[in-house]
Predict the 3D structure of the following.
Amino acid sequence: MEIKVFAPATVSNVGCGFDIMGFAMQNPGDEMIVRTNDQKKLIIENQTNIAVPLEPTKNVTTIAIQAMLRKLESKQGFTIIYTKKISSGSGIGSSGASAVAGVFAVNKLLSETFSNYELLKFAMEGEVISSGSIHADNVAPALIGGFCIIKSCEPLDIISIPFPEELTTVVFLPNISLPTIEMRRILPKEVSLKTATMQWANVATLTAALMLNDTKRIADSLIDYIVEPARSKFIPNYTEIKHTMLRSGALGASISGSGPAIFSLTENQDKAETVSRAVSNLCNDLKIEGRIFISKISKEGARVVQLNDYK
Ligand code: HSE
């Protein structure tokens, strides 16, 4: 049997919500083919020009699938064919999407043995090797879609919240990569009570504003006092790009995940296109290389693209 699946890219942290907030994009995403094999092992094939670890103990997808097979005490072999277009270290959840795509695909081939809750736990095991720590703010929206709040990873507790239908993100993805593991090492170990208070005021306000369709308060609360100051210095032209997004009408802008991607939220598609044009002009002027994506928040997470049953 063979299945082709898609898992969306994700914007995690969403400014103030380090490790506890994330949303799914409609595009781009990770497309992957998974096929059963008779060799009782996991085989990785890379059909991209992006470097992918081919050793199953070092690859996010196969680590996540191995966790699943261990639980089942199964020796079934699978061949995983990577066709992804976004490399890891991009800031839009590429590794999370690869871990989710793998467990989602294998679960479909195994007649949906596991719940989403269990799949997320397997996917998080894969994510650990790319970030060095457990976090679910990419894998949760990549699997279930929408806007997710991670109440806790152990035990796993995720809340999906409503958000304004027309809310649209513009993501600028520079042509550099920043390993999440490194970008976590440079974070402050402690913050003052005053800073923490301002940050959790923003987290609470952003959550309420999304649920209440209050775009003014989305704009007011999309501010990160803790992580952005530490990480933004590793992203070339960060300030210029962020300010261009804000000046051209974005409600707010910040680092997507651990960077280098920079995201903004806009009220609708028209405003997103204006922001995208402004960023594109800036990139032409300053000779900054990268890609721009415009996407609504996707209500859908991982999905089947094609299923072939050879039996
Ligand atoms: N919340 C994680 C971090 C996301 O910021 O390190 C990594 O993609």
